[in-house]
Amino acid sequence: MRIVIVGGVAAGMSAAARARRLDETAEIIVLERGEHVSFANCGLPYYVGGEIAQSDDLLLHTPESLRAALDLDVRVGHEVIGLDAGKRTVTVRSAAGEERLGYDALVLAPGAVALRPSVAGLDSPRVRTLRTVADAVSLRETVDAGARRAVVLGAGFIGVEAAEALRLRGLEVEMVEFAPHALPPLEAELAALVTAELGRLGIVVHAGVAAEAIEHLEDRDAVRLSDGRRIDAELIVLSVGVRADTAVFEAAGVACERGAMIVDEHGRTNLPGVYAAGDAVVSIDRVTGLRRPVALAGPANRAGRQVADHILRPDAARPIPAPVGTAIVRVGELAVAMTGANRASLRQAGIDFDTLHLHPAQHAGYFPGATPMALVVHIRRGDGLLLGAQGVGREGVDKRIDVLATAIRAGLTAPELVDLDLAYSPVYGSAKDPVNLVGMVGSNVIDGTLTLWYAEQWAALRDDCLVLDVRSRGEYEEGHLPGALLIPHTELRERIDEVVEAAAGRPVRALCGSGVRSHIANRVLLQAGLDSASLSGGMLTLRAVLGDGVLVAGG
After folding, report:
1. Residue 12: which region, alpha, beta or left (left: phi > 0; alpha: psi -120 to 50)?
2. What pLDDT does residue 38 have?
3. CA neighbours within 13 Å on the CB side: how many for 230?
4. In angstroms, rounded to a whole number, what is the distance separating the alpha carbons of residues 229 and 233?
5. Please, which pLDDT band fits residue 483 given cuts at 50, 70 and 90?
6. pTM for this one?
């Protein structure tokens, strides 16, 4: 059997390696358009920033090492320019010319290419992308040559990593993002923490605006924004997203949706003997059922492996798992991670949900070095099925998001998170791990023990509700919502009559620092016969959502 694989890196090389392990007799040919067939593309920004010293450290395998270890015929500099599914051939162009290559099974893993929006002047030689080792080397050489000002177009994962890398090298860095905030998939209340950290690093973020044109000057370029501002730059990094690199295969009859190849649960396209995997295919989101490409290394590697299984062991092959989109990025001293669905995708899918905000420490509070993290978790309304989670913090975020990703994969509900038996030591966690706390808060919401209100509702409810601040007087005087009644939670039982009088029949909306004390107060208020709810995430979340401008200081 001859298996031809188009594209290396994650999905393609995973398919090739698995195929060899399953069949020593198969002829396996990998066609890679670029110079490198197996490299750490997730490490590219860290090479630009100097944390990875040598570009060779990014190379995981070479054609020679793959031939020696797995007997793979890897051909770099070979671009597939045509496909004839009826004859089971691909047309390949290389330095030696064009040739037709037959196959018994064809695996398409062409990946994605950087989007190039319609911006005048984008052809400037100062505009770069960061998708390949050559891109990273070129960026680093430009920095080494003395570039001092950079603009990053796009504040997604790669854009943020590129901006931080350039800042580490001492450049003045500004970012431009059309979405309302950096890292657009992140919930707004967490994105505010990211923006603050980028500011601490000295990176300026222009959000909610677009780059309209790039003006070429003698010693620099100027990026003109839609709000009229101009930003000078000696280096411009284009990172506004990617698109599936499928034009050749769509023209040959591979069914596509918005440019990405459509496959079944085993990676089969609509053409016989033709499979596809990786960034260039449509995936069905495990949580929402929405169809979209998922440009992540983990799902691509797993899909490539499962495709090889189906080619060589079709009766035993498992379906390719639907991705939940687990991802993490470093921003300065913060880890920013997410898994599952966010608010926008849940609303798009028409799923009713409740949102939980928590601010637990990464380990026991009495052990030195405890720092809070911010968690936002979505659960399905009614049964508490876990739908998505995001976290930002200095330590421990990766562990919790990975556990929650596993819980989503397993179909767990919030009450079941309470019962998870997780590792505990004061150095590493708490007896009630943040994941257990998510379950406890979610369980309380499901069974009605806890009713939540949200910072976004403040403007609508301020005139119709009594806002009860149950923090200490010192916290209150540092900043509180106008008109809020201060009664510390430790005094509430003795002063409940004051609340009843002040409420005058109106609902009571309690708040504290993070949501713990207001939950205690909420239980007291409910059992006193009042209509009460607790602010989800407390003042920590409210400040992130509304900013300090809504607060007043003093008594």
Report:
1. alpha
2. 85
3. 9
4. 13
5. very high
6. 0.95
